[in-house]
Amino acid sequence: MKKIYKYSALIAAGMLVVAGCRKDYNKINTNPATYNQGVYNPNYLLTSAQVGYSGSADLAYDTWRANLIYCSTMMQGFSTVTSYWAGDKYLNNPVYTAAYWGAPSGLPSGGDGAYPEQVRYIVDVVQSTTGKAQYANLHQIARIMKALIFERITDLYGDVPYFQAGLGYYDKDYFPVYDKQQAIYTDLLKEVSDATTQLNASGDIATGDQYYKGNVAEWKKFGNSLLLRIAMRLSKVDPATAKTYVQMAITNGTMTSNADDAFLLGDASGGRNTNNRNSQVLLGDGGQENYYIKWSQTFINFLKTNNDPRLSKIAVTQLYLDPNSKVQNTAFVTDPTVAKGEPNGLDVGNVAATSIYSNPTFTSFPDYSSPNPALITRGGPTFVLTYGESELLLADAAERFGLGGSAATHYNNGVTAAMTYLGEYSPTVAVAAGDAQTYLTAHPYVSGATGLNMINTQYWALTNTMLDFYESWANWRRTEVTGTNGNGYPNLTYVVYPGNATNGTIPRRFPYPTSEAGTNTANYNAASKSVPGGDLLTSRVWWDVKQ
Fold this sequence. Notes:
By secondary structure, this protein is mainly α. The protein has 22 helices and six strands. Helix 10 packs antiparallel against helix 11 (239-252), helix 10 (216-232) crosses helix 16 (387-401) and helix 17 packs parallel to helix 19 (449-465).
């Protein structure tokens, strides 16, 4: 599905009417001469929430710090020797782990995070459209979008404000409690299943929708695929509930092709609310990330060892030749035989054990593989949920629970989609369906534990190429294997960096922002004390039970 749009005007309009959990909201927003719910179109705020979810509204702070600095390197999709990239060194940087939640003290304006830039907008859409026939489909889409937003927040932090979040204007409760993740997930399943069922093809068109332009048939498939993903998060902690909702998603119909992929396109012309934020960071807008951020040795070796056709499409060498220049070498090399991933957990210091210069793989930084420029254009897509993910989750459900038919069929569909969807970045990086079939013929599906490994390693590879490292981390934690000391699929080799905060293990969650201690003190204190093992990088969220 083509998704081309310009949303700066919508954002500007939406910003005039946003409703949120702000202490002085009632006082400063009750002038009848100004915008109010009687005179604005809530579609604008759906746009704002979708833009916020992509990271596009905040100058890349949450994308840069949460998705890239932490998740991408913890999951060994990317690697860097840049000192402040704390993820693959398992260091605790409270400002960076707080970035996705919201702006801690000292963070420049604009870096507001999920609660100010996503939650307050989408909650206002849900509340302001309740019971209004002219916005019936918009209301259901907003409920699904709200679940999408909160799934990521709770996956990152665990127990978080949910039921009261964003309701300060409506309920006059400006200090929301932290709800248990189990209760949140129970409600997410209820909300998505009910909202998806209530979508009506004969109803209103949600004009603010930037994923599907209000197409109800697409939203139904999206809703069921999201329901599948939410349900599969519970595969360790509550398999009975997981099976119930997986079957519901299967019965009602998940995505059926890459044409159903949900993504939001940036605007190459730039501006505060338009750039693709992953690309902005990887093109070097924040420093020398363009030169030093590389595909991880773990990921490149996986693709190279298996003769994966994606390797020549996503990875290039000799892209940046000068650390002080953002100019790309147009004669970059796509030859997969010279592709080389950068090891994780290294720096440019003088200690031989951790210095990239002492590593046997090092020759020069341009020799390490960078993301293909086609994947990181400012106007490119930020992927939200794809058919490939849906099929691989169905393969997992078939193998694990015996639901939904053949695990091998879903696996084949998922791997094919995970390769061919790359054409949605650019035709120049498209993998032909025939090449995907050649790969599958050489790597046939094997049932049992081996199959679960294959499925979820492919899920890791797909979400890496989507640059959705939040999802890569969540699924890796979900698929922990008994006896591996916390390792999921794929089985990653941990790094041991001096002074790390996790005793040399990959983090399991983000600690709560310390800024909450000064703004939502009582609820923050209660939540921090209730985290099993303490409010640490090593603590686990509810669904991440130890195997």
